[in-house]
Amino acid sequence: MAKGKILIIDDEKLLVRSTCIALACYDFLTESALDGKEGLAKARDCHPDLILLDIMMPAMDGWQVLERLKKDEATKNIPVIIFTAKEYSDGKTLAEKKGAVDFIAKPFELDDLVEIIGKYTG
């Protein structure tokens, strides 16, 4: 039985694919979107238990996506973990201030990612 459905919104195709495969080994179902617009639509359509959201994406960055997710009645209660390679000295604090529940920097250890996801998927 699946532990939860994770939506990954990130423009790095290889990272998305490998993360989906890895999370499947931990019994998570995954969906993916390669840009912010697609991510917003999938969040509404697939009702994930959690979203992993990259910040640096073309057209609409992750902060804009997060803002829209939190303003939308259909998605505002979905936990969002910022999932980015961008360096932030206070990444977790900044992410939480903007409405995310947590932050993980890339590259990451799979066990660390699974542990953080587990906090929010029960």
In words, what does this structure look like?
The chain is of the alpha/beta class. It contains five helices and five strands. The chain has helices spanning 13-25, 36-46, 62-71, 91-97, 110-121; strands at 4-9, 28-33, 50-53, 80-84, 102-105. α1 (13-25) links the parallel β1 and β2. The radius of gyration is 13 Å and the shape is globular. It starts with a strand and ends with a helix. The relative contact order is 0.18.
The portion of residues assigned to helices is 40-55%
Count up the domains.
1
Helix count from the secondary structure assignment:
5
Main sheet overview: 5 strands, parallel
Order of helices and strands: EHEHEHEHEH
Average pLDDT: 92
So, CATH architecture?
A: 3-Layer(aba) Sandwich
Shape: globular
CATH topology (level 3) name: Rossmann fold
Q: What strand line-up does the widest sheet have?
A: 2-1-3-4-5
CATH top level assignment: Alpha Beta
| CATH homologous superfamily title | Response regulator
